[in-house]
Design goal:
There is one protein chain. With 302 residues, this protein is α/β, with parallel strands linked by helices. It has two domains: 194 residues, Rossmann fold (3-Layer(aba) Sandwich); 80 residues, no CATH class. The strands form two sheets. A six-stranded mixed beta sheet has the order 3-2-1-4-6-5, sandwiched between helices. Strands 8-7-9-10 form a four-stranded antiparallel beta sheet, with no helix packed on it. Helix 1 crosses helix 2. The radius of gyration is 19 Å and the shape is globular.
């Protein structure tokens, strides 16, 4: 008698994500995987390994660097790409600023939303017809509107009212020259799923995700790390606080949370009991209407 294997919810999510990656590789001529060194894109790398090893990935890795990323994360990014032996392309917002395609309103403005410009420039430079990203629908209301294969027009823009139907897990990644697809294999995952997958697979992470002591200030209800990019303002008290990062991005818009979770198992437990969404108190750029996620996505953001 054959013994039936019971699949866990992580097995189902993993299988779906691998299927999506293979669909992108099969339908698209020149895809790329967006890899920042963050936890979601780390999961994408493991899924790509399971989808395509022992061969090479059928796409390079790409990171759009604002120049204001945490050193721990960019160092991990380079290390992981080297370990896998995969090609890593890095394009910098600072280069777009030198070209004049990105113009800051003032010196202290966050560069985060301007990644859209540099990404579109990289897509044009290399002729990418699909970008595989680690966005998830549970992160933010605009991302909840995304299809798994998200169509972008010849200007790189996203129209939430002009998306393709996705019935019965049939995905259409085809596009005309100049158009683009953003593919999100872990779109149906939650923050908890990501951490449970990291735990199950034993994936390495940048140290910034684990509890550590960091100088911070309290600003508008958020914990803001004190760095060269985000110095304390007049009248703010600098304190050393035990924190970790739930999500990692540009220093100017990524806030940590108080935590003593120094292992993945503790983070899983902490995630199960939190009542605050992942981006709700940790992504400062989501709090301002002029830089809303939906507007940024319409402009080409991933």
């Amino acid at each position: 008698m054959n013994q039936r294997t019971t699949l866990t919810h992580l097995d189902w999510l993993e299988a779906e994500a691998i299927h999506i990656m293979r669909e992108v590789a099969g339908q698209c001529a020149n895809p790329v995987l967006l890899f920042s060194g963050g936890k979601d894109s780390i999961c994408l790398l493991r899924l790509a390994e399971k989808a395509f090893r022992p061969g090479k990935f059928p796409f390079p890795l790409l990171h759009i660097d604002t120049g204001h990323n945490y050193d721990e994360v960019t160092a991990f990014r380079d290390q992981r790409a080297a370990e896998l032996g995969e090609r890593l392309i890095v394009r910098n917002v600072e280069d777009s600023m030198k070209r004049g395609t990105v113009i800051l309103k003032h010196e202290g403005e966050s560069r985060n939303k301007h990644q859209s410009v540099t990404l579109l420039e990289a897509i044009e430079e290399f002729g990418f017809d699909a970008c595989i990203g680690g966005a998830r629908r549970d992160e933010e209301k605009a991302r909840a509107k995304e299809r798994i294969m998200s169509f972008r027009d010849e200007f790189g823009q996203w129209d939430p009212k002009n998306q393709r139907p996705e019935l019965w897990n049939l995905f259409n990644a085809r596009s005309h020259k100049g158009e683009n697809i953003r593919a999100f294999p872990i779109s149906n995952w939650t923050e908890m799923d990501v951490w449970q997958y990291i735990e199950r697979e034993g994936l390495e992470l940048p140290s910034i995700y684990f509890s550590h002591i960091r100088p911070v200030v309290m600003r508008q209800g958020a914990i803001v790390p004190v760095t060269d990019v985000t110095p304390a303002r007049a009248g703010e008290e600098i304190v050393n606080l035990q924190v970790r990062f739930r999500t990692v991005g540009d220093i100017t818009c990524t806030a940590p949370v108080e935590s003593d979770a120094d292992t993945v198992a503790k983070i899983v437990l902490e995630t199960a009991t939190t009542t605050i969404t992942e981006r709700g108190a940790t992504r400062l750029d989501d709090q301002t209407s002029d830089a809303s996620m939906e507007q940024r996505k319409k402009e080409g953001y991933f």
